[in-house]
Design goal:
Structural class: alpha/beta
Helix content: 10-25%
Order of helices and strands: EEEHEHHEEEHEEEEEEEHEHEHEE
Number of helices: 7
Mean pLDDT: 96
CATH architecture: 4-Layer Sandwich
Largest sheet: 7 strands, mixed
CATH superfamily: Ribonuclease Z/Hydroxyacylglutathione hydrolase-like
Shape: globular
CATH topology: Metallo-beta-lactamase, Chain A
Low-confidence stretches: none
Amino acid sequence: MNPIKIGEVDKVTITTLVDDNSGFNSQFLGHHGLSLLIEITSGDIRKKILLDTGQSEKAILFNSRHLNIDLNTIDMIILSHCHYDHTGGLIGILKEIGREIPVIAHPAIFRQTYSVDPYLRSIGMPLENTKENIRQHGGHLLLTDKPLNIMKGVISTGEVERSTDFENKGINTFNIKENRISHDDLIDDLSIIINIRNKGILVISGCSHAGIINILKHTVKITGIKDVYGVVGGLHLLNSSDLIIDKTIESLSNMNIQLVAAGHCTGLNGQYKLSKAFDKGYQMLHSGKKLEITSK
């Protein structure tokens, strides 16, 4: 496979529109889920990407107003995977935007997926998130399991190759298709790859169900760029053993990661261990938090 010529960007600003953590002494709302507004500048091109829409649009709309962010200026939406806490606000956000906009996701995102923890329940896309309803409210669906060029310096990972021997192989969820029950491997998990000039690769993930180290290895493989500057998003170390967390930190350290900004499903133990390992290079996400990374 020939590496993808990705190009470079000059500046990335990431605003956490919603996270499980509302922050200390904060005016912002939090709920279980994630939504990140990513503003990217590459030369004279500027685009705004919304990664995920939380489990409801309500907190996103509230927090956006307090941040003086106009959601009508969003250029596209990327859904990292099917789970309700990342897709539940989609229709509400499309209504707020009020015009046609690309919605990028993996083709498997519409599958039925269930959990029995703590009881039998659907945890996939809400029932209102049908293809027809998304299109009716302005969502132009771009469904692909391959890396997709978003703009100069930015691509999606597409479906991530699972190559590590220690990362979780999905979670305890299952699919029902043609009356058959099967383990859900969460093949729809995808992330955003941004190549920042003079810095290197920044990977922004929703939940890292594919495994953050798998995601980074996949990123290096498809781009041919070995310099990985940082990771932002949910790392899904919640309920992971100390051994898995320690191996994850060791792998990140071996890649000479400069920035780890994690929240949502990372878990308290994961947050603590990452903060100890990366010290000033670690930041905890919360609703309203803004990160700015430039090429300088």
